[in-house]
Design brief:
By secondary structure, the protein is an alpha/beta fold. The protein has a single domain, classed as Rossmann fold (3-Layer(aba) Sandwich). The protein has 9 helices and 9 strands. Strands 3-2-1-4-5-6-9 form a 7-stranded parallel β-sheet, sandwiched between helices. Strands 7-8 form a two-stranded parallel sheet. Helix 4 runs parallel beside helix 5. The chain starts with 8 loop residues before the first strand and ends with a helix.
């Protein structure tokens, strides 16, 4: 096994389960040094056991704590010889409910983790990304960043914000030679997915359930290809085109969908 300093490295938040876990396993299998971070200590221990302590760093991290994030990034850089090939800001929570009925504390928590946490992590990663040729800052957004999703409006708003941030820094970070991209997954079969949504999901098409491994494979592709937005599945690009061309039509379709879901609940 080559030394850590000569291996490519990836820093992943939300690594203990779902997309983050599958991404960590995929990249470790390809010989990368993996930084796995999450608030879920038990999940991180399981990940560490699978990947091996020599192949990564695994530590609890609250992405909303800027000082803790900076400290984690410093330790990571010390282990990798000051390089970071791929920063994957993946940690996120949903927090459902109608906007005017959600407790303010829950709204603030979703915003803090899903958006402020991404900004904190991105800023903490910049020095290492700048020092690494060909590096990529990748953020997990959502298909909810294509059209505002009723019932998870705050989550959807944070993912719109993440998409906008990605588009802006994809231009700004060019001055460092650092790339930026995001993932726009649809219905992903992770612990965040409700049982009701699993029941309603079709078996094919853009709204089919996608396994986390499929998203992880797009993370791999994102590093190796120069694409700004990664739609998972790819058919979601068609939905995005409809949103731009016919927003009123989409609004009425989504209104009918919400009514159907409410009636079925």
């Amino acid at each position: 096994m080559s030394s850590v300093e000569t291996r490519k490295s990836i820093f992943i938040t939300g690594a203990a389960s779902g997309i983050g876990r599958e991404t960590a396993l995929l990249f470790a299998g390809e010989g990368w040094f993996v930084g796995g971070y999450d608030v879920n200590a038990a999940g991180l221990e399981l990940l560490k056991d699978e990947i091996g302590a020599d192949n990564g760093l695994f530590a609890q991290l609250d992405v909303t704590d800027a000082d803790a994030f900076s400290a984690a990034m410093t330790v990571f850089g010390e282990r990798t010889g000051g390089r970071l090939d791929l920063m994957h800001s993946n940690a996120g929570i949903i927090g459902g409910g109608l906007f005017d009925e959600q407790p303010w504390e829950e709204i603030a928590r979703v915003v803090n983790i899903n958006f402020l946490g991404v900004m904190i992590g991105t800023r903490a990663a910049v020095p290492l990304l700048r020092a690494t040729p060909g590096s990529l800052n990748l953020i997990t957004s959502s298909s909810s960043a294509i059209w505002g999703t009723a019932g998870i409006s705050v989550y959807s708003a944070t993912k719109h914000a993440v998409r906008g941030l990605t588009e802006a820094i994809a231009i700004e970070f060019k001055r460092y030679g650092v790339r930026a991209a995001d993932l726009l997954p649809g219905l992903i079969d992770t612990p965040l997915m409700s049982d009701r949504m699993r029941e309603l999901a079709p078996t094919e098409g853009m709204w089919r359930l996608v396994k986390p491994r499929e998203v992880a494979e797009h993370v791999w592709r994102a590093y190796h290809e120069d694409v700004l937005h990664w739609y998972v599945p790819a058919e979601l690009r068609e939905f995005h085109a409809q949103v731009v061309a016919e927003p009123e039509v989409v609004r009425e379709e989504r209104t009918a969908l919400l009514a159907m879901m409410n009636a079925a609940s």
